Amino acid sequence: MRRLFANRLAIATGVVVLLMSALFALLRVAA
Amino acid sequence: MWSYAVHGAVWLVLYLLFILAPLFAMLAGTLPPARDVWTEFAVALGYSGLAMMGLQFGLTARFRFVTRPWGEDVIYHFHRQISLIAVGLVFAHPLIIFAAQPELLARPEDGSVPIGALAAVASIGALALLVVTALWRVRLKIGYELWHASHIVLALVAVGGGIVHMVGWSFYLEDPRKRALWIGLVLFWVLLLLYVRVFKPLFMLRRPYRVAAVQRERGDTTTLVMAPDGHAGFRFTPGQFGWLTLWRGPFRITGHPFSFSSSAEAPGGCVAMTIRNLGDFTAQVHSVPVGQRVWLDGPYGAFTIGHPADMHVLIAGGIGITPMMSMLRTLADRGDPRPVLLFYGSKDWDSTTFREELQALRSRLHLKLVHVLADAPQAWTGERGRIDAALLGRHLPPPYAAHEYFICGPNPMMDAVETALGQLGVPLAKYHSERYSFA
C-alpha cells in the first residue's frame, strides 16, 4: 500500500512536470 | 491525520518547486527567438529531467526533514520510480527535437562533433547504464558494493554530462545569470552527495562506538551492543534505525541500515542492533570481536511510537521483530499501561528470535503475543501459516482505526498486511511500515 502510494506520488509528479513543460513551451511560443 | 496530509503537501510543493523554478527562470530577462512548440517542449523536458535527476541526490542525502513526512521506505521507492520518469523525460528530449528538426542529425560540414552533443551522449549513456544496473543488479550478479560505487559515478557522469550539454549548446544559458543559476544548481546537487559521503563520515569519525557485547540469538541471529567511545551518543525513538559501518572506516560507502533493538531508555548511550545471517556480509557479524571500533550514523526513520493511540499493534515477520523489540523494551522501561498486541510470524518455534524475552515482557507490559509459525509441529495449538486479514480479524479488537499499527517484515507479508488493514478501514496515517529492502 505504501509502495503503491509512492508509485502514485511519482506518477503524479511526472504528470505535473509534463504539463508544466508544455506550459513553458506554449508561453515561449505565445510570447 | 491532518498534519500528515499537510506535511506531505508541503513536501510535494517544495519538490516541484526545486524542479520547475529553475525551468521557469529561463523565461526571465531577454530571450532568444522562440523555436517551434515541439522543440521548446522537448527543451523543457530536458531541463526538468536533469533537475529531477539532480534532486535524487537530495532524496538519498539522509536529511530527516526530507524523509520524515513519508518515511524512508516511501522516499526510497519514490527515488526509484521518479528516476524512471526522469530518464523517460531525458530520453524524450532528443527524440522530439530530432523529429521536429531532422536536419540537426546531420554532422557539421567540417566533420567535428560539438562538445554539447558529446556530453549529451555521455549523459544519456550513463543514464541507460544507471537504470539497467539498478533494475537488474541481482540478475546481472553485480555485488552490492560495486553497484553502489558505480551508481554514484554514473549519476555524476549523467548530471555532469547534462550540464556540459546545456552550457555547450548555449541557447537559454547564453545569459550569464541563467548559466550561473544552473551551474550553481549542479554544484548544489554535488554538495548534497559530498554531505553524505564526506562531511557526515568526518563527523562520525569523531564519534566512534565500541562493541560492548556480542550475543547469539535464536534463528542464526546476533545482537551487537555498542557503547559510545568518548562521547555521549545520541537519543533515538524506538523503531528508528542507523547506518552501521563495521569494518575499516566511515568513509566506506557500504554502511548498512539496521533497526535499533535496544530500549531507548538504555543507560550510557548504549544501542543494540540485532542482525540475522542472510548469507552476505551479515554472515560475519557474529565474529565481530568485543571492543572493535564501529561507526553509527543515525538515528533515522519515522517508524516510531509516540503518536496518540489507545493501543499499539505490532506486526512482525522474521527479523522484522528488531524494531518491535526496541518499542516493547522502551514501553516496559517507561511503565506504559496501554495494551500492546504483537503478531509475530516465524519459520518455526526453535528459530523464533527473542521468544523467551517476549514471554518475560508480559509481566511488565499489558502485552498479548500471537505467534504465527510457518512450519508448525502437529502439537502446536497457536496460529500457523502466514499473517493475513483473517488472522488479524481473529485477534484485533475494534475499533480498528483507533489503534496505531507498526508492520515490519518481508515484502510479501507487508503487502498482505497493508492490504488487510486497508480492508479493515485503517487509514494510511494510522499505520507505519518498515521494509528490510528499500528497493
Order of helices and strands of chain B: HHHHHHHEEEEEEEHEHEEHEHE
Please state the overall shape of chain B, judged from the principal axes of the Cα atoms.
elongated
N→C terminal distance of chain A: 44 Å
Biggest beta sheet summary of chain A: none
Identify the notable features of this structure and list them briefly.
heterodimer, A: mainly alpha, B: 439 residues, alpha/beta, Four Helix Bundle (Hemerythrin (Met), subunit A), 3 domains, 11 helices, 12 strands, 17% strand
What does this structure look like?
Chain A is mainly α and 31 residues long. In chain A, 94% of the residues lie in helices and 0% in strands. Chain A is built from 1 helix and no strands. Chain A is rod-shaped and about 45 Å long. Chain B folds into 3 domains: 203 residues, Four Helix Bundle (Hemerythrin (Met), subunit A) (Up-down Bundle), CATH 1.20.120; 92 residues, Elongation Factor Tu (Ef-tu), domain 3; 124 residues, Rossmann fold, CATH 3.40.50. Chain B starts with a helix and ends with a strand. Chains A and B meet through helix 1 of A and helix 1, helix 2, helix 4 and helix 11 of B.
